[in-house]
Write a structure and sequence with these properties.
Blueprint: H1 5-18, H2 22-41, H3 44-57, H4 62-74, H5 78-91, H6 96-108, H7 112-125, H8 130-142, H9 146-159, H10 164-176, H11 180-193, H12 198-210, H13 214-228, H14 232-244, H15 248-261, H16 266-278, H17 282-295, H18 300-312, H19 316-323, H20 334-346, H21 350-363, H22 368-381, H23 384-397, H24 402-415, H25 419-432, H26 437-449, H27 453-466, H28 471-498
Helix pairs in contact: 1-2, 2-3, 2-4, 3-4, 4-5, 5-6, 6-7, 7-8, 8-9, 9-10, 10-11, 11-12, 12-13, 13-14, 14-15, 15-16, 16-17, 16-18, 17-18, 18-19, 18-20, 19-20, 20-21, 21-22, 22-23, 23-24, 24-25, 24-26, 25-26, 26-27, 27-28
Length: 499
């Protein structure tokens, strides 16, 4: 423990100063040195006896109390150790060794609060000692005071920039506790110290992506690229970030640069097609997609892109031509089955539509859009048991699915059954989406079926104010208006007869 000659000399001096007589000094020093020797030999029980003899001779030497406390601690007598440490601190309040040992004893007792107080006092004595900050950080972690732990690690780093491990611990705490703002703060400190550390840059990129600070994420990706060199992954990441920042030209240019670096690459080509479709640039999208079809005939994305382009141009027949020859090859691909089923639905081929949408649902049973489209097909075929089941599944899975409420309500009212239930469904749809022309028309039509013509007209007029060109809504208005007129005609005629 205190084995080197200098420490022994200092301890001898302290003992000498505190001894009452020359003879007591010699005896106290003898017992103290014997105790130290036994401590170094690992014979802690005998060391206690020697230290006790030294204390009997000189009870006011704080160093001897610290040594006997250490011996007691090593043989598991923590209460005795604590008592001697308190005595040592009464004799010398700035004895850092005594306070450190007392703090450790409190930690063993799981008394984090008392341990914290001791290490706070140690910081007052030696404010530049980063080990104390580390201990306080560890105690804060024990108490699950995550922010305070991070603060202590940061403070240690500010005192000594070599204390990187503390900052890394702080980053780990922040990430584990989902405190992403603090994680970002720590990452910036780490990058100030080591700006080309790819691990730190990756963490910072991910954090800024989560907080939607896309300009900062882009900067992190660019720095990683400068360290590691160009790669397809970096080009794709930069393209995505430029898109998020609304810079579509740069997003496209990054992909063109990527193709020069790695051509042909199906991921780059597919993303180019996707971006071009987003800009309604179908001509360029078709050209790039043709390269996918030629170079990657076993990748379903080329055929899917062809179908998406056709559907966007309102040519479902072309989508069917693009997908049908390859549907067996990609029989397990949800998107191909879904698009093909949707295209058949648009050309009113409900049999083939049901076939492919059913296969899509088997591949991805949670697909809401597939369930909605299948329900419409079952509805049109009069297979209401299946359509009602799907509508109930949709509503049970998502109580905010306004479309499911509306379509189920419209199906019931068209069948002329459960009109009151249909009204409740329609009310839910309006509550969720109050400005939808189809939903307003549905509830108006239900009120018409209930012979509540004023309510019906109110909703249908509101529906037409949103979508005045809708032929179905116009027909509903005519029918409701006529019904209301027919209802009031007998009253008018009776009045005229009385006149």
């Amino acid at each position: 423990m205190k084995s080197n000659i200098l420490i022994l000399f200092l301890l001898s001096l302290m003992t000498f100063l505190s001894a009452n007589t020359s003879q007591e000094e010699e005896l106290a020093l003898h017992h103290f040195m014997q105790g130290e020797f036994l401590m170094n030999q690992g014979n802690y029980a005998l060391a206690v006896l020697e230290f006790q003899d030294a204390i009997n001779l000189d009870p006011n030497a704080s160093t001897i109390h610290v040594s006997i406390a250490d011996a007691y601690r090593r043989i598991g007598k923590n209460r005795h150790a604590e008592n001697h440490l308190r005595t040592a601190l009464e004799l010398d309040p700035e004895d850092t060794e005594a306070r450190e040992m007392l703090g450790q004893l409190y930690i063993l007792k799981k008394d984090a609060g008392s341990a914290k107080l001791e290490f706070m006092k140690l910081l007052e004595i030696d404010p530049e000692n980063i080990d104390y900050y580390f201990m306080l950080a560890d105690l804060a972690r024990l108490q699950k005071n995550w922010n305070q732990a991070i603060d202590y690690y940061i403070k240690a780093f500010e005192i000594n920039s070599m204390a990187i491990t503390g900052l890394e611990q702080a980053l780990q705490i922040a990430l584990t506790t989902n405190n992403f703002d603090r994680a970002e703060e720590v990452c910036l400190l780490l990058l100030e110290d080591d700006p080309e550390n790819v691990t730190y840059l990756e963490s910072f990129r991910d954090l800024t992506l989560f907080s939607k600070k896309y300009d900062m994420a882009l900067d992190a990706v660019s720095k990683m690229e400068s360290v590691l060199g160009p790669s397809t992954e970096f080009f794709l990441q930069k393209s995505a970030l430029f898109e998020e920042l609304g810079n579509m030209d740069q997003a496209l240019q990054s992909l063109v640069d990527a193709l020069e670096h790695d051509s042909p690459n199906v991921d780059i080509l597919h993303r180019l097609v996707t971006l071009l479709l987003g800009k309604d640039n179908y001509e360029q999208a078709i050209l790039y997609n043709q390269r996918i079809l030629v170079n990657f005939p076993n990748d379903p994305r080329g055929f899917i892109n062809s179908a998406v382009i056709a559907m966007s141009l309102k040519k479902p027949e072309d989508a069917i031509l693009a997908l049908s020859p390859h549907v067996d090859k990609f029989s397990k691909d949800f998107t191909i089955q879904y698009l093909l089923g949707t295209a058949f639905y648009q050309v009113k081929d409900y049999g083939n539509s049901e076939l492919h949408l059913s296969q899509a649902l088997a591949i991805f049973p949670e697909s809401k859009n597939t369930k909605h489209n299948l329900a419409l097909i079952y509805d049109s075929n009069g297979d209401w048991t299946k359509s009602d089941k799907l509508y109930m599944e949709l509503i049970a899975a998502d109580s905010s699915d306004a479309q499911a409420f509306n379509n189920y309500a419209y199906s019931l009212v068209e069948r002329g059954i459960d009109i009151e239930f249909a009204l409740e469904l329609a009310k839910n749809a309006i509550r969720l989406t109050p400005n939808s022309a189809p939903y307003l028309d549905t509830i108006g039509w239900i009120y018409y079926k209930l012979n509540l013509f004023d309510e019906a007209l109110s909703y249908i007029f509101e529906s037409l104010s949103i979508d005045g060109e809708n032929e179905t809504i116009q027909n509903h208005l005519e029918e409701v208006t006529k019904a209301k007129q027919d209802q009031t005609t007998p009253i008018i005629q009776q009045t005229e007869k009385q006149d």
